[in-house]
Every structure is written in C-alpha cells, then in structure tokens.
Design goal:
226 residues, alpha+beta, Jelly Rolls, Arc Repressor Mutant, subunit A, 2 domains, 4-stranded antiparallel beta sheet, globular
Length: 226
C-alpha cells in the first residue's frame, strides 16, 4: 500500500535548510522542461522549493517508466552527486519548479558543517529507494486496474489533500498518457479504466485534473477485492 516518508524540509531545522539553500544557485524550470537527463554527469543536486518533478527511465525497448514524483522539500540528483557518477534517471518539471542547485564541493562542506543532516539524507535516500522498488513491483502486477489504482493511491498519498467531502484531490495536471505511464499502461487502457471508474463515481477526471471521489472503493480495486 502507499507509503509516505518525511521530506528533507520536514527533517531539517530552518537554519540548516537555509544554509543549504545559501550554498546553491536559485533555479527555475518551466513546465515540461528537462531538469536532468539519464547519463549526464552528476555535478549538482536540486533542493525543490515549489512544483512537482517526475523521475523516469526508459528501457532498452524504448518503454518509459515513471519511478517517482517529488515535491517541495525533496532533493533531486543527490545519488549521482555523492558518488560522482552519471544520472541513473531523467527528471522533468511537471509544473513550474523552483529550487536551489548545489554543487559537490558546497554540498560536502555543508555536510561537514551539519553532521546531523546525515540522518535526514539517509531517510530521504531510503524513501526514494522504497518508491523505486514500489514502482518496479507495480510493473510485476499483471492486472491493469490493480496497477492503475495502486499508482493513483500512491500519488494521492504523496501529494493529495483531503477535501471536505472526503475526496482526495491530486494537485497536478496529468494527461491520460502520463497516468498510463504511472502504471505501465497505454493511454487507451488508462482512459478506459478512468471512464469506467468515473461512471461508478470512484474518480473524477477532467482537463488533467484528478480527484479520487471514493478512496475506499479505489482501495478495494488496488487490493483485488473488486
């Protein structure tokens, strides 16, 4: 089932987070702009302040797989920076994104000055590993509706908010293709399931905006109970 972990913002005190930002360069990425490309040198990391970022990889057969979505308070690109290697995945802005780019020397100096941050960094890395494992595990599920229901619940759990009527809104615009990629489905199949669930009043999807109107009903599908 969906799992959530504290962001770096939640784990760091205000002084430490402010110091990390001060050591970086403020960056802005427009919606759909590439932030990192798979195979590029890991010369910096990005502390995300606003917006959502999609992390993905492409198989040798050319199939794209979404590994994670990151939001405010998360860090992006720290693995390639720390081991001075290349990017293991690509990242793009799903909305306008702002943050601070921090290079290797500045980040290493920051860790020496704030040894307590090592724990927060470990938690962040573990959370990302868990999300990547969950994304890979999702692909092994043969039932398409189960995969899609799980993907939507995980997305809602990470970014969504509870509305007054008990529904869960996901605060990002997603195309049918993007929703399909979350679960390894074609656009046509994702659209078919969404329309069927909308008729049952499980979800509401219009012009890229998604609400889970019956979380318990969608959870039943995710658990194979419906």
């Amino acid at each position: 089932m969906p799992h959530s972990a504290p962001s770096m913002r939640a784990l760091l005190d205000a002084d430490a987070l402010g110091d990390l930002r001060a050591r970086g360069t403020r960056r802005h990425f427009a919606k759909d702009q590439t932030i990192y490309t798979h195979g590029d040198p890991g010369t910096d990391l990005l502390v995300i302040e606003t917006g959502q970022v999609e992390v993905s990889t492409t198989s040798s057969a050319g199939r794209r797989m979404v590994l994670a979505h990151l939001g405010p308070g998360s860090i992006l690109g720290e693995v390639a920076l720390l081991d001075q290697s290349t990017r293991s995945a690509s990242a793009r802005a799903m909305s306008d994104v702002t943050g601070h780019s921090v290079g290797f020397d500045n980040f290493r100096a920051f860790l020496f000055d704030h040894p307590e941050v090592h724990f927060a960094l470990t938690v962040e890395l573990c959370a990302k590993l868990r999300r990547s494992n969950e994304a890979l595990e999702l692909r092994t599920e043969k039932d398409g509706p189960v995969r899609l229901a799980l993907a939507l619940l995980r997305l809602s759990e990470q970014f969504g908010g509870m509305d007054s009527d008990g529904a869960q809104s996901i605060p990002m615009k997603l195309s049918q293709s993007e929703i399909g990629e979350l679960a390894g489905l074609s656009r046509a199949n994702a659209n078919r399931y969404l329309r069927a669930w909308a008729e049952k009043e499980l979800v509401w999807f219009e012009k890229g905006k998604l609400r889970i109107t019956d979380p318990d009903g969608l959870r039943a599908i995710a658990e194979g109970r419906d």
